Predict the 3D structure of the following.
Amino acid sequence: MTKSQAARAFLELSVQLRHEGLLGENLSVKASLRGNEGEIFFAELSGADITMQEISTGEEQEPFFHAFYVKPEAKALLLLSGIYAPVVAQRLRALTAELDDMAQIVGLTARVAASLAPEEIARCLHGRNSCFVKDAGMLITGRAISEAVTGAILLEKAAMTHLFAKKIGGAKRVPLFSAALMHFIYQKKYSKINLGAETTTKSGTEEPTEAPAQTAREREIRAQIVAYGRRLQDEGLLQGTWGNLAVRLDERYMLCTPSGLDYRLLTPEDIVKVELATLDYGSQRKPTSEKRLHRDIFAARADVGASIHTHAKLCGVFAAARKSICCIEGEMKRLVGDEMRCAGHALPSTKKLSKVALGALGNRNGCLLMNHGVICCGTDLVAAYLACKAAEAAAGLQLGL
């Protein structure tokens, strides 16, 4: 990594963090990138300013660099405050994963480091990718900038979920076995799809493939899925690679987002055509792991032409507390239904998840997935998107926000 490449990376990082509300007038960030030859680039981000330097030695200048020794695979470090993270860091010794996206990318718990002393960093990052830091906020590690940014978003979201859920009886932890299994799968397999795609996209080394013939309708839907995926991410309803979209193409096929690919990298050619009867997708990219859930909704509901699974933040509070969203009126009621029930627990991408989700969904256009997220549907992708927006608005109203 050259100095100019690092400067561009820090600029991209600052744009993403500012968009997520994690960098601003009163929120500064310390960031560090490790190059392929072991060189360390350090930047302080504050407001619109970026101050960058290349450093040959680490910990004596910035104690949080010790995370590079604890996590040798890490390429990016972030030390940032957040809004809700400092509150959790003052109140708790550790935050147990109450949503499965935190379990996957952070670990079963996020410990609170008393300081940035090396022994505290080592203790709190052992078996985990991130931690809270008392009087500082969050220390995030990532094997790429995108993973570090997503880690910061999800740890801040986990802190918010824990605090807001107290208004409705408190959040419950993700079942231990499920949390451990999902973390293992993410670290060993799922995340590598996105990391590999990021590398080939930035280096321009990805081999072009010849796309099969597509109808005008299919091309239109592919572009629409990409556009709405990015829109949902921009609006905070999707984070990183979490969440997925599917559209019924015809009686035989559906189109859905691929597995483990960040929406910022998604193109219409990445959208996967899946056979409804068999879930076969041939030699295309691997489709979302929730393809069965989308297919089963299409099979059960002839009126549904599109479905969207999100990890929306305020709906996530209810999913973590395992409570229904009941305050749905007016236009929100028309889009979603009279209630958003919370389905029982099931591992992602399983037959059981489809069963409990369909039971909670009924004839409505949305339901919560316990400790997981939300699934919304509609006659087409626009209707499903509006249902997602209405669900989040209803959750905000019931929380008094």
Q: What stands out?
A: The longest strand covers residues 28-34. Residues 3-177 form a domain with the L-fuculose-1-phosphate Aldolase fold (CATH 3.40.225.10).
